Amino acid sequence: MERIRLLIADDHKVLLEGLHRMLSDVSDIDIVDLAHDGDEVLSKIKTHPADIVMMDIQMPNKDGFQTTIELSRDFPDVKILILTMHSEKVYIEKMYQLGVMGYILKSSGKDEILDAIRKIASGQKFFSDSVTLAMLENKKTHVHGSDSPLTKREMEILDLIADGDSNPAIATKLFLSVDTIKTHRKNLMKKLKINNTAGLVKYAMALKH
Fold first, then answer.
1. How does 157-182 read in b/e, with b if 16+ C-beta sit within 10 Å?
2. pLDDT (tens digit, 9 = 90+) per residue, 85-116?
3. In CATH, 4-127 is 3.40.50.2300
């Protein structure tokens, strides 16, 4: 089994060394290098190729936002995992929009950090529970607020999806055709940036709680 090549970046030396010690004896992870800021990440990854860069957001010289932009542009195959103290929605949403594969907090234990690294290496995204909750709360505000991108009809359909109704059942209740309901579902998924029907159902159910 190939080991996961990991480059870790943080401007706090004690934390960086602690992460190195914690992960250096994990059999399926190879820590290829350590960096103290974004400039070092972009420099070191040229000579020490990595599958994943795990880094903080607030770093000197070049922060995590700009480093993510440049990594994604110059090294598109490298996956990015954010490890930070920031649980604020503005940080999470911006990093999500930039395409990071994961976002976890520095309060995470070793098991969660390893879980994140392994899932991201396999192509899955990983966001810690508190981060996911913050993202969901932000979407709730966006969907229900005065600037909501959803129409009244789409909100009605979203509520019925949350109740577990099928397309024919929703069509009957709203006096619409099944094809019209299918079109509304597609529009909902596009507006909410959800990729599949299962995700839309989960989102609709979470929105009601």
1. bbebbbeebebeebbeebebeeebbe
2. 988 888 888 888 888 999 999 988 999 999 99
3. yes
* pLDDT at position 139: 55
pLDDT of residue 99: 87
Give kind and range of the element (H or E) at residue 105.
strand 102-105
pLDDT of residue 146: 46
What is the reported pLDDT for 125?
85
Distance of CA 61 to the CA centre of its chain: 25
| Whole-number Cα distances in Å, 23 to 1, 29, 133, 163, 177 | 17, 7, 27, 44, 56
Domain locations along the chain: 4-127, 149-207
Helix (H/G/I), strand (E/B), else coil: 6: strand
What's this model's pTM, rounded to 2 decimal places?
A: 0.66
Residue 66 φ then ψ, to 5°: -65, -35
At the topology level, CATH places domain 149-207 in Arc Repressor Mutant, subunit A (1.10.10)
Does residue 101 sit in helix, strand or coil? coil
- What is residue 128's three-state secondary structure? coil
Order of strands across the sheet with 29-35?
29-35, 4-9, 52-55, 79-84, 102-105, 126-127
Helix H or strand E encompassing 31: strand 29-35
Residue with tokens 């940080």: 91
Q: Which structure tokens are listed for 173? A: 């209740």
